[in-house]
Amino acid sequence: MAEKMQAIMKTKPAYGAELVEVDVPKPGPGEVLIKVLATSICGTDLHIYEWNEWAQSRIKPPQIMGHEVAGEVVEVGPGVEDLQVGDYISVETHIVCGKCYACRHNRYHVCQNTKIFGVDMDGVFAHYAIVPAKNAWKNPKDMPPEYAALQEPLGNAVDTVLAGPIAGRSTLITGAGPLGLLGIAVAKASGAYPVIVSEPSEFRRKLAKKVGADYVVNPFEEDPVKFVMDVTDGAGVEVFLEFSGAPKALEQGLKAVTPGGRVSLLGLFPREVTIDFNNLIIFKALEVHGITGRHLWETWYTVSSLIQSGKLNLDPIITHKYKGFEEFEEAFELMRAGKTGKVVFFPHKG
Ligand SMILES: NC(=O)c1ccc[n+]([C@@H]2O[C@H](COP(=O)([O-])OP(=O)(O)OC[C@H]3O[C@@H](n4cnc5c(N)ncnc54)[C@H](O)[C@@H]3O)[C@@H](O)[C@H]2O)c1
Ligand SMILES: C[C@@H](O)[C@H](N)C(=O)O
Ligand SMILES: [Zn+2]
Ligand SMILES: [Zn+2]
């Protein structure tokens, strides 16, 4: 096996990243080394690349970026019993303590001591990567690596869409970024109808249609609340799924959802949000869910099965594929400009 590898590394506490050559790491106790077959860019990677306030407070350069991955185990560290060389895995990024109050109630997704793979330690934008064995998820051999790498963000989308009944329910999705697009795919595969998507970017509205949205609306040009009321004969939607992190979208969605309906919130707002709780939530008797991470490990079973069912329309979401990492700066800039769905790297060119 090679002794040296390429990696996209956050080398300095400043904008950007560098493609560097480093030693292929050795797995320690409880770890495995994987050959990275496919790895995709997450919005969190963009924040690290941009070196925003959150990244400055959390990331300690030098560090290899990336956390959405499919890879093959090529070396097993001491004490690892459940994985073997040749296993085909993806990674749950939330490394939980197993000991806190939340973990002891099987609420691992809200473990208060969570460390994030690729955020709090080296990640997977590299030819090879170290993975904590307890966070590995074994994939069926025939799952395409680009789908397998998407399972982690798909888990966010699955927990949002499937937080309540969805089959046959009218649904509003606000935001058709990579996460919202995955949400549309999950909602359609699960039988939601009609799926209405509010998204200001024309490029992303077109992607939303390709993924299967029944209606799209530009909230900067048309009132999405009126649009929803027109489509639903004045009833409002049964389900409102927030994937944008835009305060205005939250308010519009709460107005567009029918009294007694369901609201699941994944988008993270840039600041505190003011909402008319009395009229938009309490008197409407809404069921409101905050969504974070993935349920361990139930969500992974659901995601894997949905992919294997063949019903998830993922291909239109993967808009950019790169062999190798040489063009990583172009990839990051395109994604920053909102000109992509998911961007996937295949590090090994052969
Ligand atoms: N809770 C969690 O565990 C978790 C996990 C991953 C991501 N997130 C959050 O989910 C959100 C979506 O992630 P992403 O990577 O797709 O982000 P993104 O920024 O790429 O997508 C957001 C989309 O919302 C659109 N938008 C902006 N204003 C809007 C408005 N007023 N109405 C409708 N749409 C609007 C944007 O054009 C964009 O396409 C982000 O806020 C992200 O931080 C949360
Ligand atoms: C790591 C972060 O970007 C990831 N999407 C999560 O679920 O938390
Ligand atoms: Zn992520
Ligand atoms: Zn815990």
Automatic annotation (TrEMBL):
It holds the Pfam family ADH_zinc_N. It catalyses: L-threonine + NAD(+) = (2S)-2-amino-3-oxobutanoate + NADH + H(+). Zn(2+) 2 binds at C97, C100, C103, C111. Its cofactor is Zn(2+). Zn(2+) 1 binds at C42, H67, E68. This is L-threonine 3-dehydrogenase. Catalyzes the NAD(+)-dependent oxidation of L-threonine to 2-amino-3-ketobutyrate. The gene is tdh. Residues 16-345 form the Enoyl reductase (ER) domain. The keyword Cytoplasm applies. NAD(+) binds at L179, E199, R204, L266, G267, L268, I291, T292. Signal peptide: none annotated. PANTHER family: L-THREONINE 3-DEHYDROGENASE (PTHR43401:SF2). Its main location: cytoplasm. The record marks E152 as: Important for catalytic activity for the proton relay mechanism but does not participate directly in the coordination of zinc atom. Belongs to the zinc-containing alcohol dehydrogenase family. InterPro entries: ADH-like_C, ADH-like_N, ADH_Zn_CS, ER, GroES-like_sf, L-Threonine_3-DHase, NAD(P)-bd_dom_sf, Zn_alcohol_dh.
